[in-house]
Each structure stands twice: as structure tokens, then as C-alpha cells.
């Protein structure tokens, strides 16, 4: 019986490379000349530091574009609230690993709502989907890609 696992993983080495590239980009950009702005990588978090709130928003866009260039889904990025200390602003960006329980329930409900001939079961931080045909599993993949869920999914352990 064909089966697959739906997981949410982020390649943290690629995230680190994207942070390094974003630091290089900031050092060459004209609008960041003479401004103290930096990205700090502390696994699995990235701290953005700048002199203003507007610059933090620009830095988020820079980081998002660098992640896209490195084939890391930007949906895995969770942006915190900006905080000001003196004249400096900072922002925490975390990267989601694993599927949380409530998101897993949404995924299972979405799959069952489509009335596909598959069974979906939550197993820890992943969702196992089994069906009679490989085409049904591929339909589940298309369904999750079309649904605008705020998390990125990968499909592993595909067995025939």
C-alpha cells in the first residue's frame, strides 16, 4: 500500500548561508551606507539589528529574497515583534521545524474534507498518509500546495 510522510523541515545550513549573503548585500547597498545594520545567526534564530523600524522591514525583505535564492521556503520564517532599545531596533526571526499539533489537525481535516481515498494520521511532528493508489497521494500533494497554509511542507518516505 503506498504511503508518504508530510513533514516541515528547514535546511539550517542554507539559512546560515542566506544570512551571510544578506550581510554582504547590506554592506554594499546605498540605502544602508553609514547605518549600523546586521544579521546575527544563532541557530535556529536570526536577529536583525538596525537603527530604524523601516530598515528592519527592508532587511526582512532582503533575508526573504536570499532564502528564496537558496531554495528555502520563506513560509518557514516566523517574524517576531520589533523592539527598540535606545536608538537601535531589533527583530527576532525563527524558523519552524516540524508540524505543530493544531497545524497537523488542519492538514488532516483538509485531506478528509476532499473525500480522497486516503487515510491521514498524525505521528508526532509529521502526518502519515496512506492510500490504495499512488495517484491519490499525488492528489494530496497538489491539494496541500494549492491550500494557502502558513507553513511549508515536504513529502518524504514515499513508498509504493
List keywords for this structure.
single chain, 160 residues, five-stranded antiparallel beta sheet, 4 helices, 9 strands
Q: What is this structure, in a nutshell?
A:
The protein is α+β, with helices and mostly antiparallel strands.
Can you give the helix content as a percent range? 25-40%
Count the helices. How many? Answer: 4
Task: Evaluate the radius of gyration.
Answer: 19 Å
By helix and strand content, what is the structural category? alpha+beta
CA-based shape: elongated
Strand content: 25-35%
Poorly predicted spans? none
Instruction: Work out the oligomeric state of the chains in this entry.
Output: single chain
Order of helices and strands: EHEEHEEEHEEHE
N- to C-terminal distance: 6 Å
In total, the number of strands is 9
| Biggest sheet features | 5 strands, antiparallel
Average pLDDT, to the nearest integer?
89
Function: Nucleotide-binding protein.
InterPro entries: UPF0234-like_C, UPF0234_N, YajQ-like_sf, YajQ/Smlt4090-like
Protein name: Nucleotide-binding protein MTCD1_00482
Family: Belongs to the YajQ family.
Give an account of the 3D structure.
The structure is a single chain. The protein is built from four helices and nine strands; from the N terminus they run βαββαβββαββαβ. It has helices at residues 12-28, 53-69, 101-113, 134-146; strands at residues 3-7, 38-42, 45-50, 77-79, 83-85, 88-95, 118-123, 126-131, 154-159. The protein starts with a strand and ends with a strand. It has 160 residues and is α+β, with helices and mostly antiparallel strands. Strands 2, 3, 4, 5 and 6 form a five-stranded antiparallel β-sheet that branches.
Amino acid at each position: 500500500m503506498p504511503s508518504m510522510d508530510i513533514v516541515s523541515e528547514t535546511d539550517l545550513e542554507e539559512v546560515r548561508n542566506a544570512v551571510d549573503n544578506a550581510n554582504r548585500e547590506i554592506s554594499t547597498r546605498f540605502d544602508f551606507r553609514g547605518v549600523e545594520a546586521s544579521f546575527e545567526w544563532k541557530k535556529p534564530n536570526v536577529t536583525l539589528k538596525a537603527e530604524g523600524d523601516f530598515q528592519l522591514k527592508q532587511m526582512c525583505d532582503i533575508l526573504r529574497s536570499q532564502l528564496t535564492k537558496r531554495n528555502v521556503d520563506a513560509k518557514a520564517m516566523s517574524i517576531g515583534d520589533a523592539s527598540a532599545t535606545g536608538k537601535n531596533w531589533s527583530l527576532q526571526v525563527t524558523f519552524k521545524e516540524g508540524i505543530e499539533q493544531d497545524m497537523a489537525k488542519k492538514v488532516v481535516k483538509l485531506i478528509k474534507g476532499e473525500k480522497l481515498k486516503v487515510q491521514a494520521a498524525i505521528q508526532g511532528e509529521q502526518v502519515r498518509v496512506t492510500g490504495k493508489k499512488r495517484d491519490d497521494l499525488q492528489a494530496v500533494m497538489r491539494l496541500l500546495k494549492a491550500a494557502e497554509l502558513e507553513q511549508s511542507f515536504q513529502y518524504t518516505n514515499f513508498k509504493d
